[in-house]
Amino acid sequence: MPATPPLRAWAHDAIARIEADFQRSADTHLIPLPLPAFSSRGIDLYLKDESTHPTGSLKHRLARSLFLYALCNGWVREGSTIVESSSGSTAVSEAYFARLLGLPFIAVMPRSTSPEKIAQIEFYGGRCHLVDSATQVYAEARALASQSGGHYMDQFTYAERATDWRGNNNIAESMFSQMARERHPVPRWIVVGAGTGGTSATIGRFVRYQRHATQLCVAEPQGSVFSAYHAGGDATLTGPGSRIEGIGRPRVEPSFIRELVDRMIDVPDAESIAAMRALSALLGRRVGPSTGTNLVGMLTLATQMREAGQSGSLLSLLCDSGERYLPTYHSGDWVERTFGDCAGATRRVAALLA
Ligand SMILES: *Cc1c(COP(=O)(O)O)cnc(C)c1O
User: Which of 142, 215, 267, 347 could form a disulfide with 296 if both were Cys (CB 3.0 to 4.6 A apart)?
Assistant: First the structure.
């Protein structure tokens, strides 16, 4: 066997460490939602619980993929500073992998990012560089990486291509295999939110590759540009950005692949909050706000299926746990200050669930 070129020895070891970490990990659960108003009509709803990853969200998958992609591209070397623009969850997961590889890590995030996420990034030895608005994170991260001679991970560009869409343990393959013994094993709908757009791209490509009839719906928060981009195709659109952490963007992200999304459902912020609360009560544990947005999307589709006399299954994601948002989305005062009165939305969500 030829000897490993010296420059590559560190990368080989780094990849081996990530693979060993993966080998030690378990898959996330698929939870059936106890909703008799739908199940009695042949409609089953499920959430894949991505909060149980070691770093608490679906971004654990993305961070692993981005590190492997960067290593296999030769973009990251021993001692490289890793820089990322993030709304928080990706940075938490990347800080974990940077620590695993002994690399310095800097997260560039909006000042509004929850203190729990900042604390977690620092817990893993990362540094947080806060900017005033979500639109500033990209240029700032790029500049920091070039100043430090490091690598800008750029999740918003690379999320869609860093994950193997054909399978190889991606989230879509896992969902379909976990559905194998259900009464409707091939879902009629999969509903996700879009932050990078990476998760929707992976699922959209996988269902096409496997030639499933499953349709993909993206649930979209207020202030995001993905809905208008999906409708009209203008990639230069900008907007104020979303107030639901993790999803919705102020610009059209390169990883959001419009052609793969069959339907967009716009969800008012107050309904996302109301659904987050209703689901937390239903499951007996707190979920994050983007999971509330997902639930509104699912309930909208499930209600339409029921009205049309269709049966089938719908899948979505429990993206992260509500423990990350105790002083914010799970604080009544903070919610009222930020979103105003949610009573009307609470009644609408209750009606959807009834
Ligand atoms: C990133 C994120 C999403 C959306 O996932 P993408 O694959 O980036 O589109 C949803 N919820 C939370 C909490 C997230 O952090």
Answer: 267
